[in-house]
Amino acid sequence: MIKTLTIEPLTREAFAPFGDVIESEGRDYFMINNGSTRRYHQLGEVQLDEQGRGIISIFRARTLDYPLAIKMLERHPFGSQSFIPLFGHDFLLVVAPVGDGGMNIDPASVRAFRASGRQGVNYHRGVWHHPILALRDDDEFLVVDRSGPGNNCDEFFFDESVQLSLELG
Ligand SMILES: NC(=O)N[C@@H](O)C(=O)O
Ligand code: NI
């Protein structure tokens, strides 16, 4: 299979099979702090196994070269993983559904999205995704994910006959 992925705009609805979109635009809120602050409440949920702890990190990512060959995806079976852009720059996402839980991905199910700099994502537990795809060098992301025992990162490499490409417009 040889395919250039179509980059879709990131919306709550389109991304629902993969996780949550963390954004304030168009989302419900309620007032707190004596009316000085809007709380956009529970835009996503941190998913953990019983032995896991939720931790907060910063990823500083360099840009990759495009067109980019998507050779692998990874997943975190024990917890969710969220990426919140800290500098307000767009970034890209490549994802595939959890599937049957096995170590296989249907290349036809792989999708790509472009997040605006005001959108973050929370990959749900076990959702296949490409490691962070920054569009600005040394861009930084706040990351909330799971720490704990066991291997929480499965990597799946596509067969050489599968050539998925990600191109910038
Ligand atoms: N390995 C790691 O912590 N980062 C990846 O999970 C990623 O999605 O970027
Ligand atoms: Ni990850």
TrEMBL record:
Keywords, in A-Z order: Lyase, Purine metabolism
InterPro entries to which the protein is assigned, alphabetical: RmlC_Cupin_sf, UAH_cupin, Ureidogly_lyase, Ureidogly_lyase_bac, Ureidoglycolate_lyase_dom_sf
Requisite cofactors: Ni(2+)
Keyword Lyase: yes
Top EC category: lyase
A Pfam cross-reference name: Ureidogly_lyase
Superkingdom, natural source: Bacteria
A GO BP entry: allantoin catabolic process
Record's catalysed reaction(s): (S)-ureidoglycolate = urea + glyoxylate
E.C. designation(s): 4.3.2.3
Pathway involvement of the protein, from the record: Nitrogen metabolism; (S)-allantoin degradation
An MF annotation (GO) of this entry: ureidoglycolate hydrolase activity
Sequence similarity: Belongs to the ureidoglycolate lyase family.
PANTHER family for the chain: UREIDOGLYCOLATE HYDROLASE (PTHR21221), UREIDOGLYCOLATE LYASE (PTHR21221:SF1)
Subunit structure of this chain's protein: Homodimer.
Purpose of the protein: Catalyzes the catabolism of the allantoin degradation intermediate (S)-ureidoglycolate, generating urea and glyoxylate. Involved in the utilization of allantoin as nitrogen source.
Name listed for the protein in its UniProt record: Ureidoglycolate lyase
Organism: Zobellella endophytica
